[in-house]
User: Fold this.
Amino acid sequence: MILMFSLDEQFIYHHQNRQNKYFSEDHKLKLRGVDKMLFGGDYNPEQWPEEVWNEDMKLFEEAHIDVVTLDVFSWAALQPSDDVYNFEKLDRIMKMVTDHGLKVVMATPTAAEPAWMAKKYPETLKTESNGTRRHFGGRQNMCPNSPILRKFYAAMAGKLAQRYKDYDNLVAWHVSNEYCGYCYCDTCTKKFREWLKVRYKSLDAVNKAWNTSFWGHTYYDFDEIVLPDLLSEEFHFGGEEWQVKSNFQGMSIDYRRFMSESFLECFDIEKAAIKKYMPDTPVTTNFMGGFEQFDYKEWAKHVDFVAWDNYPKFGSPESDTSFWHDLMRGIGGGESFSLIEQTPGVSNWHPYCALKRPGVMRLWSYQAVAHGADTVMFFQMRRSIGACEKSHSALIDHAGTDETRVFREMKELGAELVKLGDATLGAVAKAKAAIVFDFENWWATELSAGPSVDLNYLDEIHTWYKGFSDLHIPVDIIGTADDMSQYKVVLAPMLYMSEEGFASKLEAFVKAGGNFVTSYFSGIADRNDRIYLGGYPAPWRDILGIWVEESDALVPGSSNSFVYEGKRHECSIVCDLMHLEGAKALAVYESDFYKGMPVVTGNKSGDGEAYYVGTRSDRKFYVDFLGEICAKNGITKLADAPDCVEVTERSNEKGSFVFALNNSDEEQKVVLPYAVRDLLSDKTHDSTVEITIGAKDVLIGKKI
Assistant:
């Protein structure tokens, strides 16, 4: 018999207990028996002969590994048929890791269904956007709305929790693995229609929200609604498969909402089954940072703590990765998060699988800690012998020895984490500036054609974020519904789509003394992607004091520029043609027929000011512009340091900690405005004295 909490019961349980149950008053993630930063990761002993296990335990001890994630992909082994379960091997594994003093994050192995299930219940498999039903194979290959699959999800999670609930070293649960991939099957079609009836109440409201009078798309019955896939409303823009656009953006956005909620329901079903037997153990799943299919802001309300997988491409800017760390902290309400996966060395799925250079694994691990991580975990502990990730690195390589570079570096990092103990656990950032990031807005900007193929929401966000990073000024990542009153400066770059209530929120923030900054392609559409009438950015015209009449896409070979505070800066992507309605022009275009029109504006309102930047500019502009605004508001940089050194600060009941990470291949000088004791070297550095940080090295300084 399968017992489940209702989704409503699960939601109530979560919202009543998350903040006070799983985080202490000092924001520390509370895990049973954990008094240091956990160090370890995915361990798959079921894939290896048992004679290998003892060697694993010896190497784990040598490397200071203290936590393993078990059972991520063992569904076929644990459940060979409908009603037959076999936990004997997992029992031996649990006894072994427990006897060796390891903590366990237990996973539910539901990311890859068994072959027998796909054969017996083919309706559990996904249908692609081109209408093709998937065959067995891969992972996350299942329909999230399949009642049969949901039944098996609940059963497996419940049986695991019931069997292992008495293990004191089981510190957390990891449900499924990297949820992804929409489904377009008949079951999802029927569920989507039901979802629309609940959301909109009537078909007239659906037609209005989607503007179906365009192209004569009016629906007269809910059964006429088909999914927005590549056979109906969506298409590959310009023939590029990576660019999916929609003829009816409101419909496509709603389907993304529906899919995000559908997969979230699957998570909640498993979580409820676990909580029946282990109500006090936190449950999470692993997010993927720059992954746009799901609304992680909403998902974060359902996990007991945020966890994510960090796999940056070789050569990607360090600030891109730090942004995702800050986003994970932000969606979790500012609480600590778990770095639950990264690679010790090389990833095998990038176009060019370059090695992590010496010191980089350690550097990127501390980067996560610097932005809020309370764990440092990896995929995986022993390198696979075959299949698609056989070339993905691990603590223990195919050589099976402790003499590899990766192992030595992991061992050194493990020893440092033992030394750090619980010093930085639960430490939080205290930023006075914030950037608004909205997942649904991301969908909307991706689905709409125009004004430029180079328009990219993530690029715009990262550009502004990099400005703060270069200034060494900490920043929080927040959503449109979050409280802004604690900040002095709030940015909402390229916020194309927003709810009507956001305008009044902005007005209150600015009039109370806050400074608001937005950019081109903002304040244009509502949550159904229907254009606000009255001139762009219609909801914010009063607070910004401008009217944008047109937007000019800069085609390849064209250019424009402006002078701000005596310095010339380049324009790119888009140039907004705007009129002043009370705002002051801070810079104007230098060429084309709109020469002399404003490109950067400021509008005082109450005790604050609202700014508009009508183009994408160069790196120096953002540093100068944000630096000026922050200086006006008393927001100071954390250190005097070159751009290649990342500086953050976290604080807890034990004190304040500054992290200085040298991303360059040469030693760098840093000057801090306060004295610190380096927790790794035990050296003391006086205030305003140059501190030398070696290539790819880290300073973790406690203020004294």
